[in-house]
Design goal:
The complex is a heterotrimer of chains A (about 300), B (about 550) and C (about 300).
Chain A (H helix, E strand, L loop, with lengths): L1 H27 L14 H10 L6 H15 L13 H36 L4 H15 L2 H15 L13 H31 L2 H8 L4 H39 L4 H11 L2 H29 L6
Chain B lengths: L2 H17 L22 E6 L14 H10 L4 E3 L5 E3 L2 E6 L5 E6 L13 H12 L8 H6 L5 H5 L10 E5 L2 E5 L7 H4 L10 H7 L15 E7 L3 E6 L13 E6 L3 H9 L5 E3 L5 H7 L4 E14 L12 H9 L3 H9 L4 E2 L17 H4 L2 H14 L9 E7 L2 H18 L2 E7 L1 H9 L5 E7 L6 H4 L16 H10 L5 H15 L2 E13 L3 E2 L16 E2 L3
Chain C lengths: L4 H17 L3 H11 L1 H23 L15 H4 L19 H37 L1 H15 L3 H12 L3 H27 L3 H8 L4 H9 L4 H24 L11 H11 L5 H29 L5
Helix pairs in contact in C: 1-8, 1-11, 2-13, 3-5, 3-13, 5-6, 5-8, 5-10, 5-11, 5-12, 5-13, 7-8, 8-11, 9-10, 11-12, 11-13, 12-13
The chains are: A mainly alpha (about 300), B alpha+beta (about 550), C mainly alpha (about 300).
């Protein structure tokens, strides 16, 4: 197990390097620079700016400087777009926001999704099953850029119950709509996976044996059926987590939450190289770590798997 | 407002009503108009995006300008009509050759930490803005102010110390120009010229613009700033005219989606927001007191690529003219945008100060006549049903640019049989393509730097860095050069506009309007101000 | 967002089982599939949607880029759906016929879904089968590469690519395909590992058949069941994915459109009461995705005859 973790971490480092180089090259081959605007800058002004950010140096030197800065000082450099702040500032401000609503969405998606799936499986072919399946498919097909404005219309404009956006340090009433909009489709997927997985488990011999022994249903489910049911759900959590971080783009656009999603898209459009790189590296690192955690959990729950 | 202060305010109001104003409440009525004021004097408005910077030296966008005009005060302000109003400077004198300006500063202007605002603060700020070390994207503004040595300082050839600005003493500032600029004092209302508190910058470095660090001299001071979420500024007690400031707190919220912003406005969360394209007629019917459209100092146009290497198709002025004629501008302003924009046949915005829109023949024709003439011109140029013209039209990603492009391409197709290939590029790619001449027809928009026709027409100069069409006409160059010193510049501007209509290097399409929803109880908005330069200190909310 | 690996892998196990028992897997599967009502109805719906995309244009009274200048600006009362004006679905906010646009958008969305899934499936299957067949160090290396790629936030890379190389349908296919072949590769490899030890493969190896031929002739055909199920479940995800790209303004170029782009435009005007601008595209979007999900589930159940 330990050697497995070590091996995975060893792969993580070259992965990140590839990611850095890939995005750096992509950004550099982009038409347009970070300092273009409707009004083109006079050459002497542009020269000053490029000198300030080191963009007048050869390509290889820039990339080396960048990687050295990141590795040795954890310094992602200044933002080209937001001239008052560094990339570290941007991430320090936006990332906790994304992480907060991402975490709650994750919790909601997993708890609601699993309960819905289990309930549907136990009561297979009853109205509860149909309702759960209906909800989960409906939730999965409604794009969240449609759901977000609908939520706003209903809860902010018509009912006046919730503030229409902002973050305010993550107070609960500012969290509700982002979490609903972000978690729904993942909740739906998890419910579907759980249901079919649970159905399969309930039909296996050992569960039938347990039932035949006269164990109460609740006990059978919790003690025996839950663990194998959860395995396919677990393998879905990695992609789900990445999807939620990416989906934060939509949340930030609609609810003005100020997370990294908005920063990423704005930076991509404005060629803010350093912010893009910073966020890409951050999300890449998280993805690697999260996949690792999921794999470890998987191995822990299912002892058949050997690494 | 907390419950407690609300209670206090209403108690005060009761007492005034009951005892005949025994307790004078400073904000019960407006000092000049006498209107009853609301107890809640906060103003919340929507910004499209986070401003790149709120450092006066580095700021570059107009939303940042709105914030900076609250936080800082320059030598002059604009009054609601757009005229010069005293700011930190009380008055100025000009030398006979119009090259040396001497400003007299008020002695009671204070920074938010209590320090006096001196002429030296301006000298420091201007030299800082021009310095290569700061590398401000807006250092070109110091250049177009024509300050002595401005270009040399920016290119690093001379030290910033040699810039043409000197503090003679604490209240006297001398500015030396290299050429006379009639509109120079108006340029001093721009944020790049605002003073900066040197001790604060020295202490905090680039962190000086963060709340808690920033020392400013405007009517408001920065209290909270969460990028991509909001920026809050509160009354600056040290401001020299603090007693006439009515709004207590101003908040700008970053809401990138205009429809979300409108929803939140309708839910009462905002006092000002943009009207989404095409929604003005409906909103102004439903909320006549809230939806307002006023002229905005920008022109919208399509440009042709006239470079030698560019496509042959659009090198024929008659083809360009036909394409211009075939655009039914009335449909675009009335049906597509429908926000009080005005159809444009001249490049210069119709509401520009001192500018009379010249009579362009095309402007007075009916659309049928224009279409007929366009069809004729196209036939002469050899295009027809058997040989249709094909054109690439690029625009940058935006719902309203898309709507205009779709409508225009259909007008060309339906009246002239021209096939248009639409290409929507995102902003940076678009700018690059346009300045490199990698297009056939491209969208353009230009906003006035100052309220005078040359701010638009100078784009038509052969050497102008902003002439993305690369239109070259020596007569136009001569006319524009002459206009700078002429007593009757209008005649020259008329001639230039005629050249534009004749040669059609660009197709003017419409003149912008600024279309917003304003909360019903918000008063004091400077609707007549052509550049829409507003100051929160002039705004107030009346009791409903 | 992608189909669950574990669920799809079951199909492979089932196919082995069927082979052992020596009955016709495909005939059995067909019977089972047609017994599944939801799946059959969905299949019919899907055929109808595809028919709409292919032949709907015949019924449209207008071209999809034709702007009706008498209608723009007065959308709310004139651009409503009506048989009389020929705008069956009303007009969009630019005065264009929504019926023609929905037909065209459905076509693009289906194409993005199917082509995206095809790219993913072809690349993934070949890659996985190759890795699985050769095994050992080659396998290790190839799978490490997959691990590395899996850790890259591809949505971000795709946004960068579209921003940088300009938007085009080709870029979209490439980007979407690039993202989704990884899972398929893992699944294909896992199955190949078991197939490889079968007699027919061993015979082929012993008689000196070229490895490329073995992979293409003997291994890939045996992966078909899994591939079909995975592909069917991948298509709706591709369509959803494209709608997200359209939301960012990086989708197909005007005047072409996609369901995602139409829904996005419609969601901007729904608060003004132009409900038809979102309702019709959303209807086709939802029906298509529903149908693919059910057909995919039906296929999986049919090919994996464990009683569910």
């Amino acid at each position: 197990m330990l050697s497995f973790v070590a091996r995975r971490l060893a792969v993580a480092i070259p992965t990140l390097l590839i990611l850095v180089v890939l995005s750096f090259v992509l950004m550099y081959s982009a038409p347009g620079g970070p300092f273009n605007s409707e009004r083109p800058l006079p050459p002497e002004v542009l020269a000053n700016i490029e000198a300030k950010y080191g963009l007048d140096q050869p390509f290889w030197k820039q990339i080396v400087n960048y990687v050295v800065g990141v590795v040795t000082q954890f310094d992602f450099g200044p933002s080209f777009q937001y001239k008052d702040r560094t990339v570290n500032d941007v991430i320090a401000q936006g990332f906790p926001v994304t992480l907060t609503y991402g975490f709650w969405s994750f919790v909601v998606a997993v708890t609601v999704g699993v309960s819905l799936g289990v309930a549907a499986a136990i009561k297979q072919n009853t109205w509860l099953d149909y309702l759960a399946v209906g909800i989960s498919i409906g939730a999965q097909v409604l794009p969240n850029f449609v759901m977000a404005p609908i939520l706003l219309l209903v809860f902010t404009l018509w009912l006046g119950w919730l503030p229409g956006g902002g973050w305010e340090g993550g107070q609960w009433n500012y969290l509700i709509m982002p979490v609903i909009a972000l978690s729904t489709s993942y909740m739906a997927s998890i419910a579907r996976i759980t249901r079919s997985s649970m159905l399969e488990v309930l039909n296996t011999n050992f569960i039938r044996t347990a039932q035949a022994k006269g164990l109460p249903m609740r006990r059978v489910i919790w003690r025996h059926a839950m663990k194998p049911t959860i395995l396919p759900v677990l393998s879905y959590l990695g992609p789900a987590f990445v999807g939620m971080i990416t989906g934060s783009v939509i949340i930030d656009v609609f609810f003005s939450t100020g997370g990294i999603g908005q920063f990423f898209v704005n930076s991509a459009f404005n060629r803010d190289y350093s912010v893009i790189m910073g966020i890409t590296i951050l999300v890449g690192t998280l993805t690697i770590l999260f996949n690792l955690v999921v794999d470890i959990l998987y191995a822990w729950i299912d002892p058949k798997i050997r690494y | 407002m907390t419950l407690r202060t609300k209670l206090l305010a209403s108690t005060a109001a009761l007492l005034i009503a009951g005892t005949g104003a025994v307790f004078a409440d400073a904000h019960a009525t407006h000092p000049e108009t006498g209107e009853p004021l609301a107890s809640d004097q906060t103003f919340v408005y929507r910004d499209l995006d986070e401003s790149p910077s709120i450092d006066p030296g580095l700021a570059e966008d107009s939303a940042g300008g709105d914030i900076l005009r609250d936080l800082f005060e320059g030598l002059y302000n604009q009054d609601p009509a757009g005229n010069l109003a005293p700011g930190v400077a009380l008055s100025h004198t000009v030398s006979d050759d119009n090259l040396v300006y001497t400003f007299t500063l008020r002695n009671d202007a204070k920074w938010s930490n209590g320090d006096t605002v001196t002429a030296g603060d301006f000298e420091y700020a201007w030299k800082r803005a021009a310095s290569p070390e700061l590398a401000s994207p807006y250092s070109w503004f110091i250049e177009i102010m024509a300050l002595e040595n401005a270009s040399e300082v920016i290119s690093g050839d001379v030290m910033p110390a040699d810039l043409g600005v000197t503090a003679i003493d604490d209240t006297t500032l001398e500015v030396r120009l290299t050429q006379p600029l009639p509109y120079f004092p108006l340029m001093l209302t721009h944020f790049t010229t605002f003073p900066v508190h040197q001790a604060t910058v020295d202490e905090f470095g680039s962190d000086w613009t963060k709340p808690g660090n920033m020392v400013s001299n405007g009517a408001y001071m920065l209290t909270e700033h969460v990028p991509q979420e909001k920026l809050v500024r509160a009354r600056n007690e040290m401001y020299w005219d603090n007693e006439n400031t009515i709004l207590e707190e101003v908040t700008s919220l970053v809401i990138s989606d205009e429809n979300v912003a409108l929803t939140r406005y309708l839910a009462g969360e905002l006092d000002r927001t943009h009207v989404p394209a095409g929604q003005f007629p409906r909103l102004s019917e439903e909320f006549p007191d809230q939806a307002v459209s006023v002229p905005e100092a920008c022109s919208y146009y399509y440009m042709f690529n006239l470079r030698d290497a560019a496509s042959e198709d659009v090198q024929d002025p008659n083809v360009r003219k036909a394409l211009s004629l075939a655009i039914d501008r009335d449909i675009i302003v009335e049906n597509v945008l429908a926000g009080g924009q005005k159809a444009a046949y001249t490049f210069t915005h119709w509401a520009t100060a001192g500018f009379e829109t010249p009579d362009i023949p095309m402007a007075t024709m009916t659309q049928e006549d224009r279409n007929a003439m366009a069809a004729e011109l196209m036939a002469e140029a050899g295009y027809g049903a058997d040989n249709p013209l094909e054109i690439d039209l690029v625009y940058n990603t935006s719902e309203s640019h898309k709507s205009v492009a779709v409508a225009v391409s259909q007008m060309w197709k339906q009246t002239l049989g021209v096939e248009t290939v639409l290409a929507n590029q995102e902003w940076q790619t678009f700018l690059e393509a346009r300045s490199n001449g990698d297009y056939e027809v491209a969208r353009g928009g230009w906003c006035a730097d100052y309220n005078e026709a040359s701010t638009f027409l100078d784009l038509m100069q052969s050497e102008s860095g902003y002439n993305d069409s690369k239109y070259v006409n020596s007569e136009v160059d001569a006319l524009l050069e002459e206009a700078k010193t002429s007593d009757n510049a209008q005649a020259n501007y008329d001639r230039v506009e005629e050249f534009i209509a004749q040669d059609t290097p660009i197709i003017p399409i419409y003149h912008y309007a600024s279309v917003y929803m304003y909360a019903e109880n918000l008063e004091g908005w400077p609707f007549e101000n052509f550049q829409q330069q507003w100051y929160s200190k002039d705004l107030f909310k009346i009791a409903e | 967002m992608f189909p669950n690996r574990a669920a799809v892998e079951g199909v492979g196990d089932a196919m082995e089982l069927a082979e052992v028992k020596g009955r016709s897997l495909w005939a059995d599967a067909r019977t089972r599939f047609f017994r599944n009502k939801a799946a059959v109805i969905s299949l019919i719906m899907l055929i109808m949607v595809a028919g709409f995309a292919l032949f709907g244009g015949v019924f449209a009274q207008y071209e999809n880029d034709f702007v009706d200048f008498s209608l723009i600006g007065s959308n709310a009362y004139k651009g409503v759906p009506s048989v009389e004006t020929g705008h069956y679905f009303g007009t969009d906010s630019n005065g264009r016929d929504l019926f023609a646009r929905t037909v065209q958008g459905t076509g693009i969305s289906l194409m993005v879904g199917v082509v995206g899934a095809l790219v993913a499936v072809i690349v993934g299957t070949l890659y996985g089968a190759t890795a699985g067949y050769y095994g050992g160090r080659v396998d290790g290396l190839m799978m490490r590469i997959v691990d590395v790629l899996m850790s890259i936030p591809f949505m971000f890379v795709l946004i960068l690519m579209l921003v940088i190389f300009g938007r085009s349908i080709f870029m979209l296919f490439l980007g979407i395909g690039l993202i989704s072949w990884l899972d398929m590769a893992r699944i294909a490899r896992g199955q190949t590992l078991t197939i490889k030890n079968k007699e027919f493969v061993e015979v082929a190896v012993a008689t000196g058949v070229h490895p490329v031929k073995i992979i293409l002739r003997h291994i890939v055909p045996n992966l078909l069941g899994i591939v079909i199920v995975y592909a069917t479940l991948l298509v709706p995800n591709m369509i959803i994915f494209e709608s997200f790209i359209s939301f960012l303004g990086l989708g197909v170029q005007e005047p072409a459109t996609s369901l995602g782009a139409l829904i996005n435009e419609g969601s901007r005007t729904m608060q003004f009461g132009y409900y038809w601008q979102i309702a019709y595209p959303l209807f086709f979007f939802v029906v298509t995705i529903f149908a693919f999900f059910f057909v995919g589930d039906g296929l999986r159940d049919a090919l994996d005859p464990k009683d569910r």
